[in-house]
Specification:
By secondary structure, the chain is an alpha+beta fold. The chain has 16 helices and 22 strands. α4 packs parallel to α6.
C-alpha cells in the first residue's frame, strides 16, 4: 500500500512538472511610441518663428523615449528657403532620449530655414514618432564688411556712378529714354526719363561721361520727344514705346495725357536746358527745342472746364473719365509750379490755392506732432518719402516758404518722422534700426505698394533714406553705409541699390525702377553741391511762376 501511494505521488509530481514545461511563453511588450517633450534653438524655446539666429545654431530635442539611431538620418531634416536640403550633424545624449542637431557648415546670413521631423523616426523599441515638427528660423545679418573701406565722399561718388548706369547703359537704345524698370523692354517712362535727364547732367558734372556724350544723348532724347512721342495738348503719357513713341496704357483708361508725369519730364528737361548753356549751334538748338516742348504743354487746358484745379489725366478715348484732381499734399507740387511758370498756358494763383492747397484745409495742412516732430503739411506721419523727393529734385526747399508752410521744415521733418518710426518700430519688424530705415513706394514681395508709417509691410527701400540725404544727412549717411558695407552683397548690384528688401520676409528685390534710382543720384548731388537745385531754379520762367504762387526764397 505504501509503495502504491508513493508511486501515485511521483506520477502526480511528474505530471505537474510536465504541464509547467508546456505552458505558453510570456507575451512581449509592444513597441513604445515616442513623442517630443521639448525643442530648443540655442537654449531657447523653439516653438515659434525665430529671428536673428546665428549661422551655426544648435537645435536640442528631448523625447519621451530613447531613439533608434538608424532612423535619425532619414527623418531629421533642415531645408533652405528654396526647399534644398541643408547638411546637418546629429548626436544622441541622455540614454539616446536627447538629440542634438547642428548644420554641417555655416548657414547663409539673412536666410530662412525650415527644420522638420519627417516620417520614419522610431523609438529604440521600434515605436513610431507621434507628432509634428515643422519649425522655421531666420538667420542673423552677417556684419562683416563686404567691400573695402573708402572715404564717405568716395562712397557717394561710387553710389552715384553705379546708379548712373541705369540711365546711361540701360537707357532705351532708340529714344534714349529711361525704361520703367529693368525688365521693361521697349516700355519707357516719361517721369522716370525726366529723372534720367537730371542723372545725365549729374554724370557730366561728375565726369562719368563727357559733355559731348551727354549732349549727344540729350539730342537723341529731345528729338524723339519732339518728332515721335505722342502728345495730347502738349502733354505726354505715363508710358510710351521707346521705339515708336506710341502710348502704352498705364491702366484701362489711362491711355493719354498724364500731367504729373509730364511735369517730372519737364523738370528734367528745363534743368538740362540751363546746363547746356554754350553758345554753339548744337547747344543753342537743344535749348530752343526744350523750350518749345515746355511751351507746348497746355497746362491751363487741364483745368477741364476752367475749374480752379488741375486734372491729372485726359484720354483721347475716355476724355476726363479718370476724374482725378491734382490736390496736395503729395508729390505733385512741381506740376503747379510749372503750370504757373508757363508763358503760353499759365494758371493763376487761385488755381494753386483752391486746387492744390485747398485753401489750407485739413488734409493739406497738418500741424500735428509725431515723435515730438511737427509736420506742417500732409497726412498723418507724412506718407511715403517720395513725396519729399520728386518735386524737390528740382525745387530747392531750403529757405522756401509760402502762405502754407516752410518747405525746409516740411521735407526735413517728414524724413525725421519716417526715420523715428523705423527706429521705434511699433510693428516689431525684424531688422528695422537706425541703420535700416526708409519707407516709400517700391516693389514688395508679389506686388508694389506705397510704404509709409501708415502702411508698413516690413519692406525697406534704399531710395527712401538715401534720397533724404539733403534733409537728414547724418541718419541717411548711416543707412547708406550700412546698405553698402554690411548688406552690400545682397543690395548693391549692377545699377546701384536694388529697389527694396525685407529682412523679416528674407526677400530681396531683383528689380531696379527709374523713379527710385533717379532720386538717389540726383538727391545725393543736391546734398553735395546743390547742382540740380541751382540749375532748375535758375530758369526765368520758374522764378516768375513761383513768385506768382506766393513763394519766397533766397534764390527767387
Amino acid at each position: 500500500m505504501k509503495i502504491l501511494v508513493r508511486y501515485c505521488l511521483c506520477f502526480l509530481l511528474l505530471t505537474i512538472a510536465s504541464c509547467k514545461k508546456k505552458a505558453a511563453p510570456p507575451v512581449p511588450e509592444p513597441p513604445k511610441q515616442v513623442t517630443l517633450k521639448s525643442i530648443q534653438l540655442n537654449g531657447v524655446d523653439f516653438s515659434s518663428l525665430r529671428y536673428g539666429v546665428n549661422l551655426q545654431p544648435t537645435i536640442r530635442l528631448q523625447f519621451t523615449q530613447p531613439l533608434k539611431p538608424s532612423t535619425i538620418a532619414t527623418a531629421i531634416k533642415l531645408y533652405n528657403a528654396s526647399g534644398t536640403e541643408t547638411g546637418i550633424t546629429t548626436s544622441l545624449q541622455n540614454n539616446d532620449s536627447v538629440l542634438l542637431v547642428q548644420p554641417s557648415a555655416a548657414l547663409a546670413s539673412v536666410a530662412r530655414y525650415q527644420f522638420k521631423i519627417e516620417n520614419g523616426l522610431q523609438s529604440a523599441s521600434g515605436g513610431l514618432f507621434i507628432g509634428t515638427v515643422d519649425n522655421t528660423f531666420i538667420t542673423q545679418i552677417d556684419s562683416s564688411r563686404k567691400f573695402p573701406a573708402i572715404s564717405d565722399d568716395e562712397l557717394l561718388t561710387k553710389v552715384q556712378q553705379q546708379t548712373f548706369k541705369y540711365f546711361w547703359d540701360f537707357a532705351h537704345p532708340t529714344s534714349g529714354l529711361a525704361r520703367e524698370r529693368n525688365t521693361s523692354g521697349d516700355l519707357v517712362t516719361s517721369g522716370g526719363s525726366g529723372f534720367g535727364v537730371m542723372a545725365i547732367v549729374t554724370g557730366i558734372n561728375r565726369n562719368f561721361i563727357t559733355r559731348a556724350q551727354g549732349l549727344q544723348r540729350m539730342q537723341t532724347i529731345v528729338d524723339f520727344l519732339k518728332t515721335k512721342a505722342q502728345k495730347f495738348h502738349g502733354a505726354f503719357s505715363h508710358w510710351l514705346n521707346g521705339n515708336t513713341g506710341n502710348v502704352i496704357a498705364f491702366s484701362a483708361k489711362d491711355d493719354g495725357a498724364d500731367l504729373v508725369e509730364t511735369s517730372l519730364l519737364m523738370m528734367g528737361l528745363l534743368t538740362a536746358r540751363q546746363y547746356f548753356n554754350g553758345g554753339d549751334v548744337a547747344e543753342t538748338n537743344l535749348r530752343n527745342d526744350i523750350t518749345a516742348l515746355y511751351n507746348a504743354v497746355e497746362w491751363s487746358w487741364f483745368r477741364k472746364s476752367n475749374e480752379q484745379q488741375l486734372y491729372w489725366h485726359w484720354s483721347p478715348n475716355y476724355a476726363w473719365d479718370m476724374n482725378l484732381p491734382i490736390r496736395g499734399w503729395n508729390e505733385c507740387l512741381i506740376t503747379y509750379v510749372l503750370a504757373a511758370s508757363s508763358a503760353t498756358y499759365g494758371i493763376p494763383k487761385t488755381v494753386y490755392d483752391n486746387g492744390w492747397a485747398r485753401n489750407g484745409a485739413a488734409g493739406f495742412v497738418n500741424g500735428a506732432q509725431y515723435f515730438n516732430i511737427t509736420l506742417p503739411l500732409g497726412s498723418a506721419y507724412g506718407g511715403p518719402l517720395f513725396l519729399s523727393h520728386y518735386s524737390f529734385m528740382g525745387i530747392n526747399p531750403n529757405g522756401l516758404s509760402d502762405a502754407y508752410a516752410n518747405y525746409e521744415t516740411q521735407t526735413r521733418n517728414h524724413s525725421r518722422i519716417n526715420y523715428q518710426f523705423c527706429v521705434t518700430n511699433p510693428n516689431g519688424n525684424y531688422g528695422y534700426s537706425d541703420s535700416i530705415w526708409g519707407l516709400t513706394a517700391s516693389d514688395i514681395p508679389n506686388g508694389y505698394t506705397a510704404s509709409s508709417p501708415s502702411n508698413d509691410v516690413s519692406v525697406i527701400a534704399p531710395t527712401a533714406a538715401i534720397s533724404s540725404l539733403p534733409y537728414t544727412p547724418t541718419e541717411s549717411m548711416k543707412a547708406l553705409k550700412f546698405f553698402y558695407y554690411v548688406l552690400g552683397d545682397k543690395l548693391f548690384k549692377e545699377y546701384g541699390f536694388i529697389d527694396a528688401f525685407s529682412l523679416k520676409q528674407t526677400w530681396f528685390a531683383s528689380s531696379f525702377l527709374a523713379i527710385d534710382q533717379g532720386p538717389i543720384i540726383v538727391m545725393i548731388e543736391n546734398h553735395r553741391s546743390g547742382l540740380l537745385w541751382n540749375l532748375f531754379t535758375s530758369c526765368p520762367e520758374v522764378k516768375s511762376g513761383m513768385r506768382l504762387l506766393g513763394f519766397s526764397a533766397p534764390y527767387l
